[in-house]
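@channel sequence for tomorrow's demo:
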Amino acid sequence: MRLDGKVALVTGGGRGIGAAIAKRFVEDGAKVVVSDIRKELLDSVVSGLKPGMARACAGDVTSFADVKKMVDETVEFGNGRIDILVNNAGIDPGGTIVDIDIDLWKKILEVNLTGPFLCMRAAIPYMEKQGGGSIVSIASLAGVRCLPSMPAYCASKGGLIQLALQAALEYGPKGIRSNVVAPGATKTEMLTQAMASLSKAINRDAFGVLAESVPLRRAAAPDEITGACSFLASDDAAFITGAVLLVDGGAAIVDVSGASVARAGVGWGV
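structure tokens (generated this afternoon):
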């Protein structure tokens, strides 16, 4: 019960990694407010969790009024406390720098970067008053590496990492820790839908192609991201702040040139 007695807000919790985090946190003893823009998804998630330990709060992270409602609901649910904020809400439309619709570019940044900023802005004053707290921001391997035709997503996740580190620097003296979990390819509904069209285009299983260059040779399941989040949110990580933890099956260590040669069945330099 690593999170026993703690109170958390998880954004983007209606499905995928966010829903898995909410489930793990409840299993680890936390009371959790689960937020998402889609209320019907929230109701399904919360109904599957231990009664009395989770509450749904629909809202849009790009609206500061909605964000304040989420944080206030968490504080009320936690009898005056909010110990953990998980910034998970995000979207990932593609489009090259010259092709992406400008309004879509702005929307991606608004959800993926401004949303976490607004959540921090609303939650940090409560954390300061209570003497501390833990912020876990869900970025992506795309925040430290590049994906073709995904400039807005990569820029937003890279910006989220820097925002989280800035929070660690500024609010560490107040007892507030801020860390990042950066997943690699994870079999969420969102990525599975995107990979389906890619599989059709290349006439192969896109997840299989992706796995060829990952040392663990597979994508993650959503619940495989949650252990890192629970650890960073907990007192086990009491002296960890400003960390960026890659949960990517080793993908970040791969040299793409070497991987291409290896897939051809040839050793490097041979």
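heads up for whoever presents: The mean pLDDT is 93.
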